[in-house]
Design brief:
This protein is of the alpha+beta class. Helices cover 41% and strands 10% of the residues.
């Protein structure tokens, strides 16, 4: 409370009669503040005050005439919370009204002078506070041996945790899975592909105690491991290769980030380093592309690039962009919904609005965009190659400029002479009129000799309407399509909207839309020869702001006529029009004063310049990657809380800092307002990835568990707050998090620990008795069976058919046809050619695009972070799998593969198909049924049925 306010309240208190003081003064902190927090502050909070009234302190109450200290009857606050006629009081609008005793507390408090201690701020309390389970330090617990557990369930600490919880719920685990089930489960789990028949046979014949461990070692060393687990992480970090929103333009240079993720996971890069590189790779790894590319995480999400000329709207769009970075970072690494504190203190978790805007200050210098990512040596070598050529180019360019300057100077000496010839008004986008002696025509064409905003551009211009007026009385516009006229001319082409900018628009009798020429001409053919004497044409006839770039018009032109379309005569031109501006004037003077010698010299210099440019183009450019740009001016403070989330309402000043609720952590930080942008992100990265931060390792350990078992110990992997789920095995989660830290944040060791457990190796057999207690198997009395993901389904079909191209990395392929104008369209391909037969992780996923097969099988839209995927069952899945050309092609390919490997032996063909697709041998009944179908139809159709069976896409 300000000193002025305190003095006012003290003065009021002194003049309150002693006889109105209560026997026991009201204690604001224990009596009044709790009532404000309970009934009022959720709406009238300091960050988002409804009715412009904040109840954080007494100052707002007095300023808004709600409070008259010492005079309850004159205090509007009491009028709002009480009622004299028994009706519901005006406030609070939500929830129960205050009781008579609660109103009386306010009355007494006002009567006593409305004392509000300076150090007491009233804020709405979140549902959870600093004692919330996920915010506590990791517990150091190793489970003891369980006396009732089988011997093999007492070896791995994971099994002891699981078994103890099962016994607590009077459950018992399943027996072990078969070896065939186990190798299929593990192979899909770690690589997203099925085991080969040879791998299955080798495992079944290996009866050594280390057989299964060797399988895990081989799978973890496979490059396909990074592709599978990289796909998981790309879901979490909302990796998408288009910018989303209404334009949704493809980003063709973000794929190096995808490759970086896959490579880092294959190399078992410590995950704390991985996280640091995501947030500040360009700081800690400057000059090292393998680290620097990691910071593309910040700009891998959707963003609005439409732009807005209104400053307030532009600021709001910028705030939304940074908000996306904040939310993605907090949810991916901390499992916290920090974004909910954008407009007010978080209502459920102990995250302050000040915390949110500390992160806002941290990310303020990051802009979406691309830049060169290369080593210092690569940059130096590239510069050594291009610099001599650039110098040569600059010299030739300068010589050209001197020639043009000289010719211009010569023209300027004759300017007065030329000015006399330029008598008519300049061209105008609102309309140009040409009148001439009557002439009989069947064809009229407009030829551009320079655009009005770029006089060297003779090809591009726009026409909203082109009129040709007859000599007769009354005169009529004979160029109208409705009169039988036809228009032609090369135009801007949009694949998904042909003719959107075609020449027919120039003669439709309407303005607003325009013909956008790309060939420099517009030709009108009349239905029959007609005598004309006037032409009128424009590009922005009825536009309020014709100066906009999109209304580009002809700056210089000529109009020609013809009766046969072969012989042409000039009937009008712009030579006698005044120049639009000094640039137009200079362009004209240079053109008019050019001599043959000058043109020859210019041509020679241009040939030399073209040769140099060709040599420059032949030098491979340095790699340019969508890693974002760092804009120092954006990062300048001071930074403020935005009241109600609005950039137009700055509040309290903030500095980059760690979350206040974790202020007891040894890694906490708070920077000065002028701290460099790079230091802010590096400090945040170090704080998040610090061993003392209890959230990061918990969240990561839970994600790993989630992808192994289909559900995490916390089944809301990106929300460890109040609105998330409680952990089923909290001690196990902390043990895994500690193991992660002890193993240098390398996740392959956690894979081994989990997959070597009896919990993981047990069968997925269903038991009614256990299901009645734990229907979802959250306590893991069985291994939860799962359906393959969309990518796994497609990759598996390619592999078993022998068509999978295992090429890793590089630009992705597309399963859609991409079309772009101002906005982009993605049309699913009906036919998937061999160029698409790579693993699905290399597909160039565009936001809001539909991809047959994968979309049907719940591949998510990458517009948001996906912490866990949906798994639906719909008729469309079966229809697509059965009828799509991809399935048809792969059925034929599988049949061809089988014939090539087994010959015409039908029994061997069926056995190989079962081995490839199911990793098992067929039963006698299956062989008999299979033979019958093949003989009645064909091997290819039989393969099509096999590819559509549930056993193909489910893992037990």
């Amino acid at each position: 409370m300000s000193g002025k306010l305190f003095s006012q309240l003290t003065l009021i208190l002194l003049i309150v009669p002693a006889n109105v003081q209560a026997d026991k003064p009201v204690n604001f902190e224990t009596e009044v503040a709790p009532l404000l927090e309970k009934h009022c502050i959720r709406c009238h909070s300091p960050g988002n005050p409804k009715g412009e009234l904040s109840l954080e302190s007494a100052e707002h109450l007095i300023q808004n005439n709600y409070l008259s200290a010492g005079d309850p009857d004159s205090s509007y606050l009491l009028d709002q919370i009480s009622s004299s006629d028994g009706t519901r009081p005006a406030m609070p609008k939500e929830g129960e009204p205050l009781t008579k005793d609660e109103v009386d507390i306010f009355r007494r408090w006002i009567l006593e002078g409305a004392k509000w201690p300076e150090d007491v701020l009233v804020r709405e309390k979140s549902k959870a506070d600093g004692s919330w389970w996920s915010l506590q330090p990791l517990s150091l617990i190793t489970p003891s041996m369980h006396e009732q557990a089988p011997e093999d369930w007492n070896t791995n600490p994971i099994d002891r945790f699981i078994f103890a919880k099962l016994k607590e719920n009077k459950l018992s685990p399943n027996p072990p899975a078969t070896r065939r089930e186990l190798i299929r489960r593990a192979t899909f789990d770690l690589t997203g592909l099925p085991p080969t028949p040879e791998e299955v046979d080798h495992f079944l014949k290996d009866d050594s105690p280390e057989a299964y461990r060797k399988i895990l070692d081989r799978l973890l060393a496979s490059p396909h491991y990074g592709e599978r687990w990289g796909r998981h992480w790309l879901d979490v970090v909302r990796f998408g290769e288009s910018n989303g929103f209404e334009r949704n333009v493809l980003i063709n240079d973000l794929w190096p980030f995808r490759d970086y993720v896959i490579q880092s996971i294959n190399e078992d890069k410590p995950f704390d380093q991985f996280i640091r590189e995501h947030l500040a790779g360009d700081v800690i790894g400057m000059g090292n592309p393998e680290s620097e590319i990691g910071s593309a995480f910040l700009v891998a999400g959707p963003y609005d690039d439409v732009g807005n000329q209104d400053a307030d709207q532009a600021a709001q769009i910028r705030a939304n962009t940074i908000d996306e970075m904040i939310r993605s970072s907090a949810e991916a690494f901390l499992g916290l919904t920090v974004g909910c504190a954008r407009c007010h203190d978080h209502k459920f978790d102990p995250i302050l609005q000040r915390d949110y805007y500390s992160w806002y200050a941290t990310f303020s210098g990051v802009r979406h965009g691309r830049r060169v990512v290369a080593t210092d040596q690569e940059k130096q070598e590239h510069q050594a190659k291009v610099q001599p050529l650039q110098q040569q180019r600059d010299r030739l360019t300068q010589q050209l400029a001197e020639l043009n300057k000289n010719i211009l100077q010569q023209g300027l000496t004759k300017l007065a002479e030329y000015d006399k010839k330029w008598t008519r008004e300049p061209v105008s986008r609102l309309g140009c009129e040409e009148t001439f002696e009557p002439v009989s025509v069947k064809f009229v064409r407009l030829i551009s000799e320079g655009q009005d905003s770029n006089f060297r551009n003779r090809n591009s211009f726009g026409i909203d309407e082109f009129e040709i007026w007859s000599k007769e009385s009354p005169s009529r516009n004979v160029a109208l399509a409705s009169q039988g006229a036809k228009a032609s001319g090369a135009s801007r082409h949009i694949e998904d909207f042909p003719g959107a900018y075609g020449p027919q628009i120039a003669i439709d009798g309407k303005t607003g839309e325009r013909f956008l020429a790309t060939g420099g001409t517009l030709t009108i053919e009349l239905p029959q020869p007609t005598t004309i004497q006037r032409i009128f044409f424009s590009s922005a006839r009825d536009e309020p702001n014709p100066a906009q770039r999109k209304f580009a018009f002809v700056g210089e032109y000529r109009i020609e006529s013809s009766l046969d379309g072969k012989e042409w005569t000039v009937i009008a031109n712009s030579e006698d029009r005044k120049p639009l501006n000094s640039q137009h004037r200079d362009h004209r003077l240079r053109t008019l004063e050019e001599t043959p010698e000058h043109r020859q010299k210019v041509a020679e210099l241009k040939r030399e310049l073209a040769k140099v440019n060709q040599q420059l183009a032949a030098i491979p450019p340095l790699p340019v990657v969508w890693v974002g740009q760092r804009v120092a001016s954006d990062a300048k403070g001071p930074f403020h809380i935005f009241l109600g989330g609005s950039p137009q309402r700055p509040g309290e000043e903030v500095v980059p800092a760690s979350l206040a609720v974790l202020s007891k952590s040894e890694a906490k930080y708070e920077l000065k307002p002028e701290a460099p942008e790079s230091e802010r992100r590096e400090s945040l990265a170090n704080w998040i990835a610090d061993n003392q931060n209890p959230l990061t390792s918990r969240v990561l350990a839970n994600r790993i568990w989630h992808y192994h078992f289909g559900t995490g110990i916390v089944d809301t992997p990106s929300d460890f707050g109040y609105m998330g789920s409680q952990p089923t095995h909290p001690k196990l989660l902390d043990w895994l998090a500690n193991q992660l830290i002890e193993n240098n944040w390398q996740i392959k060791s956690i894979h081994r620990q989990i997959m070597l457990s009896q919990t993981y190796q047990q069968s997925s057999n269903y038991r009614k008795d256990a299901a009645r207690v734990d229907g979802d198997a959250r306590l893991l009395w069985r291994f939860p069976p799962r359906r393959l993901s969309a990518e796994e389904i497609r990759d598996t079909i390619l592999q078993v058919s022998g068509k999978l191209n295992k090429k890793m990395g590089g630009p992705g392929f597309r399963l859609y046809h991409f079309m772009q104008d101002n906005v982009c369209t993605y049309a699913p391909l009906d036919k998937h050619g061999p160029e698409t037969y790579r693993r699905a992780v290399y597909h160039q996923n565009a936001r809001a695009s539909v991809v047959d097969l994968m979309t049907e099988f719940d591949q998510p839209d990458c517009a948001f972070s996906i912490s866990k995927r949906a798994e639906t069952t719909t008729p469309l899945q079966a229809l697509t799998m059965l009828n799509h050309s991809f399935t048809m092609d792969m059925s034929k390919a599988l049949a061809e593969r089988v014939i090539n490997e087994t010959g015409e032996n039908l029994d061997q063909q069926i056995k190989l198909i079962f081995s490839l697709c199911y990793n098992r041998s067929p039963s006698a009944e299956e062989v008999a049924a299979s033979k019958e179908m093949i003989q009645q139809t064909s091997l290819a159709k039989y393969c099509r049925v096999i590819l559509n069976t549930s056993e193909m896409i489910y893992v037990n």
